[in-house]
Amino acid sequence: MVKRRRRHSAAQKLRIVLKALEGSKTIGQLSSELEIHPNLTRSANCTLG
């Protein structure tokens, strides 16, 4: 069985960045909570932040 790649919209990425900017959690904690890879958090933050 092939696992499909998930696609994140701009709205989802913005929500991730806003949560990351709050600073209450580390990138690792935030990534595991949102079930995303930590690199997505970093790249979205660099792109939008």
Can you walk me through this structure?
The protein is mainly alpha-helical and 49 residues long. The mean pLDDT is 82. The termini are far apart. The protein has a domain of 25 residues. The protein is globular and about 40 Å long.
Uncertain segments:
none
Shape: globular
- Quaternary organisation: single chain
Tally of contiguous helical segments: 3
The ordered H/E elements are HHH
> In what range is the share of β-strand residues?
under 5%
Radius of gyration: 11 Å
Helix % is 55-70%
Largest sheet properties: none
> Structural class, judged by helices and strands?
mainly alpha
User: Kindly, what is the distance between the CA atoms of the first and last residues, rounded to a whole number of angstroms?
Assistant: 37 Å
Nearest-integer average pLDDT: 82
Give the total of beta strands. 0
